[in-house]
Structure to design on (289 residues):
């Protein structure tokens, strides 16, 4: 498991969450600081990313030492390694994610612009990372159920499995939440169906969406019979409903892109909305490509 650290308060929050996650999984934690180019003059011959060439090595070591101290305080039994890696955070953490079971980052780093809701590193990793990404945001020490955003897509199956496993590890209830509306599918289609004709058969749509939710949950309940599952079908606008549900959750799990996403889109609008506005940590789980 990896966690990205840049010395910001947000990244220290991420370290604490990552330490708990590593403890739950019984795995080690790798604390990574990516050192990219530093603006300004540097000694002749010093690489642009070299902390020693800028007199910044004590600062970097101090940030990593503080992060390790916080991790050990919360999970003294886990193995912790730390490293400074040359390169931009976006590239370094993406490469690190290829061999990690989970990547954890804060919602904003030192490089974020004032007022920006989400840092560029988190957005990039959510779209391009090779393992599930947990973005630590929202209220401190959130409690409640694990929320699974059910979309019924084939790519979203990985998110379902992750959510069940996470609920089992945390000994928390799981709320499988499927939000639908009359735009979920066309309710009237036929050979003579004009492009402008939309006849919403509400009962038929609701029945189909309930079946989708039931089928999504069924197989994973057999894998994790110890998890208490609530199937929740809500007719509403998808993004506001999921954001509102996060107010009482300890974690929201979603796929990177649902069945309504455009082909080739790496990160869907629902996932982006949760990353920017959820009231608790969010985990993005990418499906097989």
């Amino acid at each position: 498991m990896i966690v990205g650290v840049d010395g910001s308060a947000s990244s220290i929050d991420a370290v604490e969450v990552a330490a708990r996650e590593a403890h739950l999984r019984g795995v080690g934690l790798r604390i990574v600081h990516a050192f990219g180019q530093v603006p300004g003059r540097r000694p002749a011959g010093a690489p642009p990313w070299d902390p020693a060439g800028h007199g910044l090595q004590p600062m970097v070591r101090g940030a990593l030492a503080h992060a390790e101290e916080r991790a050990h305080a919360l999970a003294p039994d886990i193995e912790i390694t730390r490293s400074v890696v040359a390169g931009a955070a976006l590239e370094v953490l993406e490469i690190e994610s290829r061999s990690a079971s989970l990547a954890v980052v804060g919602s904003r780093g030192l490089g974020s612009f004032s007022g920006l809701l989400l840092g560029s590193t988190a957005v990039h990793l959510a779209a391009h990372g090779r393992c599930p990404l947990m973005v630590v945001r929202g209220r401190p020490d959130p409690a409640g159920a694990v929320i699974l955003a059910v979309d019924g897509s084939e790519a979203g199956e990985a998110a379902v499995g992750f959510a069940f496993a996470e609920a089992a590890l945390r000994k928390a209830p799981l709320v499988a939440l499927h939000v639908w509306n009359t735009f979920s599918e066309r309710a009237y289609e036929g050979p003579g169906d004009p492009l402008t004709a939309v006849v919403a058969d509400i009962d038929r749509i609701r029945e189909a969406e309930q079946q989708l939710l039931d089928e999504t949950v069924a197989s994973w309940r057999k894998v994790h019979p110890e998890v208490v599952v609530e199937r929740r079908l809500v007719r509403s606008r998808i993004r506001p409903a999921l954001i509102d549900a996060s107010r009482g959750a300890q974690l929201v799990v979603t796929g990177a892109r649902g069945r309504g996403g455009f082909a080739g889109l790496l990160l869907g609008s629902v996932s982006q909305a949760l990353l920017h506005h959820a009231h608790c940590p969010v985990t993005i789980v990418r499906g097989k490509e």
